[in-house]
Design a protein that fits this description.
It is a single chain. By secondary structure, the protein is mainly α. It is built from 9 helices and no strands. The protein is globular, with a radius of gyration of 20 Å. The model has no long low-confidence stretch (mean pLDDT 91). Belongs to the ELO family. InterPro entries: ELO_CS, ELO_fam.
C-alpha cells in the first residue's frame, strides 16, 4: 500500500509540478487541482441533485434582471478576449501558423501575455458554470441536458489543463472560436430575454455557427496531428483537441437534427 501511495505521489508531482507550466502556479485556481475538483464536484452535485431537490417545492426565481447583467458581462469579456487575441496574433505579430503554432513558454512579454490569456480564458469557463445554476433556480431543469453539463464541465477541465501544459500556441484557435461564439450567444440570450419576437431567427444560425466552430477545430487539430509530424506542439494535446472537437460536433449535430430537421418534417 505504501508503494502504491508513493507511486501516486510521484506521478502527481511529475505532472502537476515538474511538467506543468509553473508561470501560472501562483494564480487562484491555477495551482493545486484540488480546489477546482471541489468546485466541479459541488457544481455537478448542485445542478443535478441538490438544486432540483431544493427547488422542488419552491416557485421559480425571477432572475431576468440578474441574467441580463450577466449576459452583458459575458458579451463584453468574450469580445475583449476575442479581439485581443485576433489583433495580437494577426495584426501585431502576424506570425500565426495555422499548420503548427508552438507554445511560448518563456517569461518575455509575449510568452507571459499568452499565459495570462490562457488563464483569463480558464476563468471565463468557470464563470460559464453560472448558466446551469440559473437554469436550476428558474426551474428549467429540462435545459440541464447531458450536452449542456458535459460541455460546461469539460470546457473548465480542458481550459485548466490547457493552461497548465499548452498555454497558447496551436490551441489558441480554440479560444478565438469559443469567445466569438459565446459573445454572439450571450448577446442572443440578452435580446431574447425581451421576447422571442426579437430573437427568433438567431437560434438556428447560432447552432450552425457552433457546428462550423467544431468542424474547423477538428481540421485545425487533425491536420498537424496526422499530416505534420515535424510539429513541435505536443501531439497528445493535438489528439485531445481533435477527439473532443469530433465528440462535441456529434452532440451538436444530434441536437441540430432533432431541433430543426426532424421538427420541420413533422410540421
Amino acid at each position: 500500500m505504501t508503494l502504491v501511495l508513493e507511486r501516486m505521489y510521484d506521478v502527481y508531482r511529475e505532472y502537476m509540478v515538474e511538467r506543468r507550466d509553473m508561470r501560472s502556479a501562483h494564480l487562484p485556481l491555477a495551482g493545486s487541482p484540488w480546489p477546482l475538483m471541489l468546485l466541479l464536484a459541488t457544481y455537478l452535485y448542485g445542478v443535478l441533485h441538490a438544486g432540483p431537490r431544493f427547488m422542488a417545492q419552491r416557485k421559480a426565481y425571477d432572475l431576468r434582471k440578474v441574467i441580463r447583467v450577466y449576459n452583458i458581462v459575458q458579451v463584453l469579456i468574450n469580445s475583449v478576449i476575442f479581439l485581443w487575441i485576433v489583433i495580437k496574433m494577426f495584426v501585431v505579430y502576424r506570425d500565426y501558423n495555422f499548420s503548427c503554432q508552438v507554445c511560448n513558454y518563456t517569461s518575455d512579454y509575449r510568452g507571459m501575455e499568452e499565459m495570462y490569456l490562457s488563464y483569463s480564458y480558464f476563468l471565463l469557463k468557470v464563470l460559464d458554470l453560472a448558466d446551469t445554476v440559473f437554469f436550476v433556480l428558474r426551474k428549467k431543469q429540462s435545459h440541464v441536458s447531458f450536452l449542456h453539463v458535459y460541455h460546461h464541465t469539460m470546457m473548465v477541465i480542458g481550459s485548466y489543463f490547457g493552461m497548465l501544459y499548452v498555454p497558447g500556441g496551436h490551441a489558441i484557435m480554440l479560444g478565438i472560436w469559443n469567445t466569438l461564439v459565446h459573445a454572439v450567444m450571450y448577446l442572443y440570450y440578452f435580446v431574447s430575454s425581451y421576447g422571442s419576437q426579437y430573437s427568433g431567427w438567431w437560434k438556428k444560425h447560432l447552432t450552425r455557427m457552433q457546428l462550423l466552430q467544431f468542424v474547423h477545430l477538428a481540421f485545425h487539430f487533425g491536420i498537424p496531428l496526422f499530416f505534420n509530424r515535424e510539429c513541435k506542439f505536443p501531439r497528445f494535446w493535438m489528439g485531445v483537441g481533435f477527439l473532443q472537437a469530433l465528440f462535441i460536433l456529434g452532440l451538436f449535430m444530434d441536437f441540430y437534427i432533432k431541433s430543426y430537421v426532424v421538427k420541420r418534417k413533422e410540421q
